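Hi support team,

I submitted a single chain yesterday and got back a structure, but I'm not sure I'm reading the token output correctly. Could someone confirm the output below corresponds to the sequence I sent? I've pasted both exactly as they appear in my results page.

Thanks,
R.
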Amino acid sequence: VQLVESGGGLVQPGGSLRLSCAASGFTFSDVNMRWYRQTPGKERELIAFITSGGGSTAYADSVKDRFTISRNNVKNTVSLRMNSLKPEDTAVYYCNAGRPINHWGQGTQVTVSS
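Hi R., thanks for writing in. Yes, this is the structure output for that exact sequence:
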């Protein structure tokens, strides 16, 4: 099982980024997927969820109306489109494959700063 995140980087406040997570080693279309983020000294925060078929999504209040999760079950990818970024969005972002896989990617750093 492998999850590989990409797309992080440095962006100015108000800017946008698109994170991607490439999955392999399991039947991607059978598994719910999530995006989390973590800053030093804090617990990992669940920010977005998408069901296996992509028909339902959910977001943390902190990112609702700014972030959009999506997936492509042909390419085995899950993405996170992040708009109107704020300095407090600075974190390492992780994708997660839900049960029964329960696997994490290595994370990608997002820094929002002028």
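A quick pointer for reading it: The chain has a mean pLDDT of 97. Let us know if anything else looks off.

Best,
Support desk
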